[in-house]
Write a structure and sequence with these properties.
This is ABC transporter ATP-binding protein. The protein is of the alpha/beta class. 33% of the residues lie in helices and 22% in strands. Among the domains are: 102-165; 246-339, no CATH class.
Length: 341
């Protein structure tokens, strides 16, 4: 990718605890260009949110070991000072959190909270900030924004609060937007509205978006590219079409097999992945997915249990698996590409 706006190289985020070191992210790399959306998918505890909190510089550095490289428009973030990060947060990069009600202050109006961000980064007056807040609420589809701007978070529905969060995140026209499962608590209709809104705003602002989710249906709707995380590492990456229609890692195959299809018979049983995600305090040796993998015995020499697979990336398509490409084609042949959304 030429001149990526966000570039992460060999990122490691390790937490010190009383029981030992938690390797929450353990060697992650990816690029993201302006105007594109990267969907990061994986089960809870795979390292999705931890990665993006590192981008924003929101980890407690006293108890967190950060290593690697995070470049935002050429600026290294891991070595940036807190003052430098404060200038970037909300301005050049911003985040939409999963729980809008918990993220908004119950003691201040929606307009005051949106306006505060705008004033901090632009030096605008209170009147200018209020006008900007009204404009942003209008742009995210909140009716009567000149009235609702003076309402408190509890006076908004869940979908409207999430729209207000999006307005706050975009008030300073950030070039990078991180959305951390922003539709998880919403019903399907509101989810679709929020997804359409993000796509419209991206077209308007040219924003680079990192969209974190465990829902492959959401990924199919909004992402251009997909990165699949498991146990703090990337196991597969590529374009949305490549990853969802032609999965190359057993974990990705398992995720797709555990979700209902919109095509074909409705009585096709789901195939959940057996077992549980690994402990990142004491992860399995070799491939971290091997205790749950249905194809481990197909690899010669016990490499799955002893040797960590390397993520091999060719033309943006990457897989970290000991199965040879020919083996994957043969073993995954029963996967019906038509069910891939």
């Amino acid at each position: 990718m030429n001149n990526p706006f966000l570039s992460i190289r060999d990122l490691k985020v390790h937490f010190s605890t009383e029981d030992g070191v938690v390797k929450a992210v353990d060697g992650l790399s990816f690029d993201l260009a302006k105007g594109r959306t990267l969907g990061i998918v994986g089960e809870s505890g795979s390292g999705k949110s931890v990665t993006n909190l590192a981008v924003l510089g929101l980890h407690d550095r006293e108890h967190t070991a950060l290593d690697g490289e995070i470049l935002l428009d050429g600026k290294e973030l891991l070595t940036a000072t807190e003052r430098e990060l404060e200038r970037l947060r909300g301005n050049k990069m911003s985040m939409i959190f999963q729980d809008a009600l918990a993220s908004l202050s119950p003691y201040h109006t929606i307009g005051a909270q949106i306006g505060e961000t705008y004033r901090k980064h632009t030096g605008a007056s209170r009147r200018e900030a209020r006008a900007r807040a009204v404009d942003m609420l209008r742009r995210v589809g909140i009716p009567m924004p000149d009235v609702r701007v003076d309402d408190y978070p509890h006076q908004f529905s869940g979908g409207m609060r999430q729209r207000a969060m999006i307005a706050m995140a975009l008030v300073c026209d950030p070039e990078l937007l991180i959305a951390d499962e922003p539709t998880t608590a919403l019903d399907v209709t509101v989810q679709a509205q929020i997804m359409d809104l993000l796509k419209e705003l991206q077209q308007e602002f040219g924003t680079a978006i990192v969209f974190i989710t465990h829902d492959l249906g959401v990924i199919a709707d909004i992402a251009d590219d997909v990165l699949v995380m498991y146990g703090g590492r990337c196991v597969e990456q590529g374009s949305k079409k490549e990853v969802l229609r032609d999965p190359q890692h057993p974990y990705t195959l398992g995720l797709l097999g555990s979700m209902p299809s919109l095509h074909g018979p409705v009585d096709v049983p789901l195939s959940p992945i057996p077992g549980s995600p690994p402990s990142l305090l004491n992860p399995p040796s070799g491939c971290r997915f091997h205790p749950r993998c249905a194809f481990m015995e197909k690899v010669d020499g016990g490499r799955c249990t002893s040797l960590q697979p390397v993520l091999e990336v060719v033309d943006g398509r990457g897989t970290a698996c000991h199965l040879a490409p020919g083996q994957r084609r043969e073993l995954f042949a029963d996967f019906a590409t038509a069910r891939a959304l």
